[in-house]
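Key idea: predict the complex, not the pieces.
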Amino acid sequence: MEGGTVERDNAAAAAASGVGSPAPGEQIEIRNPATGEPIATIPVDSPESVTATVARVRANQPEWEAIGIEGRYRWLGELRDWLLDNSERVLDTMQAETGKVRADASGEPVYLADLINFYGTRAAKFIGEEAVRPHTPLLASKKLRVQYRPHPVVGIISPWNFPLILALGDAIPALQAGAAVVVKPSEFTPLGLAEVVQAWKGEIGGPDVFDCVHGVGETGGALVDAVDFIQFTGSDRTGRKVMARAAETLTPVSLELGGKDAMIVLDDADLDRAANAAAWGGMMNSGQICMSVERIYVEEGAYDSFVAKLTAAVAKLRQGADGKAFGKEVGAMTSPNQTAIVEDHVGDALASGARALTGGKRLPGPGDYFEPTVLIDVDHSMKVMRDETFGPVVGVMKVRDVEEALRLANDSRYGLSGSVFGARERAERVARRVECGAVNVNDVLVNYATMDVPMGGWKQSGIGYRHGEPGIKKYCRTESVVITRFGGKREPTWFPYTKGRRRLIGRVAQAFNARDPRRRLGLRR
Ligand code: NAD
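Result:
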């Protein structure tokens, strides 16, 4: 029911923003959201061109797989060095197409370099061949091995909020696993990824196993049809379409979808830390993070003080375009569709009795900005506490106790991540009861940097995992290799069947499988 509501909201917002869906052969116009100025056009790939791109990288994939984990890490190491050496150029492009402030953009190349090293140095442990002992002496003649072979071509469909992290960040483990990769970046932010792909092919001279295609639904659908595994990051609305399309070819999917992350503040929390964390976790990247703090539940003893501190912290944030100066904290909204959704959620809350202690409205242009906003007197009948807002807005509710905080935090169709602030042991106990894929105690968003542990959404926030061992294993198919070390002309279980041999097999099997001496001897109790 609620999914339907969101779909209608988003469709209405898209229509209101006037952003259409360009067809193959047409050009996508990319605008700088901080100024509204057009900055580039990029041609839309037809389904035929998507198929041809996938076929080309597919032909080169066996050689990529054959160079092994170390060989692939060497190439990805070249990409890491290029990203670090060219980070200013990468950040300039990213700021131009997203309207982010410099500080928010600057985390992307660093994360990617760390990720390349993380998987490069751990791939052998995560996806190297495994030796397994047979579970029963009856199979002692068998040598068991599990090898992890990549899906030959992985397709990645990515959103606009972190254009490199959410495209390259999934391409890196897929390439490290030995797959070829084709990315379809968001139509709002394709330039940075295209620049990196260009560098891979040109300056780095990497093998022709990594490419990108551009467009919206038709291009994305063609990619789903052509590849062997699809990694999708985006809204749950599009995620459903991608999964339905992938079902037609039984192509496996991993979906990283939306969130409505809750923060719980206990009355024994360090309220300065909690308020600063809420301001950063809610407003960083203009709140356009799947794991943004969107809802805050505060125990009544801490509520007044926390709200005052949070409002003060948010009210003094500097908003605008800062170029290379690191002079602002909150940048532009990247997609006009999203600004319309944020405006709708805040308007709905204010009309239903909520109050904005700071912010509350869209700013006049140039550029697409929404004020950092703290709402109180909110409840779960309002969109802002129920649906994904994905903007610089937090709603704060007073709760009687931990049980009420948990009931409300878990009252969501999403379950991506969350946070709990309080005295450590108590906060940890509460955190373990939050229904989501990753929960931070006395911190926010940091679980994205702790790539050692997996991250994936519960409920309608996704299927599958990124990071940790599952984050690379998902790009592989297991092949169990069962090798006979010794044996005669035939096994006792083979033809011809004889009564004597079948009885003997039955007795031996019973002797091994029974767990009490009488049954081992073939007797009943
Ligand atoms: P979106 O769903 O509108 O678009 C995502 C991608 O899907 C884009 O590349 C788009 O062109 C493509 N697409 C659109 N229609 C398609 C179709 N029919 N078939 C195939 N591809 C299609 O999402 P968005 O607005 O770009 O991104 C914001 C959303 O992403 C939010 O919901 C946010 O929570 C989510 N997100 C999730 C994570 C996560 O890790 N869980 C991370 C970042 C963003």
